[in-house]
Amino acid sequence: MSNGIHNPDVLSCLANLSSDEVFTPPEIANAMLDLLPQELFSDPSATFLDPCCKSGVFLREIAKRLNKGLEAHIPNREDRLEHIFRNQLFGIAITELTSLLARRGVYCSKYPNGPYSVVRFDNADGNIRYKHITHSWRGGKCVFCGASQAAYGEQARQEGLESHAYEFLHTNNPNNLCPMHFDVIIGNPPYQLSDGGDTEERRRGGAIPLYHLFIQQAKKLDPRYLIMIVPSRWFSGGRGLNQFRNEMLNDKRIEQIVDYPDSSECFPGVQIEGGICYFLWTRGHDKNCLVKTIQGTKISSMIRPLLENKVETFIRYNESISILRKVQKHNEPIISKLFSSQKPFGLRTYIKGKDKKEYDSITLYANNHIGYIRKEEILQNNSWIDTYKVFISAAYGMGGKFPTFVIGKPFLGKPGTCCTETYLFIGPFRTKIEAENVISYIRTRFFRFMVLLKKNTQHAAAQVYSLVPMQDFSKAWTDEELYAKYGLTEEEIEFIENMIRPMES
Question: What is the pTM of this model?
Answer without folding.
Answer: 0.87
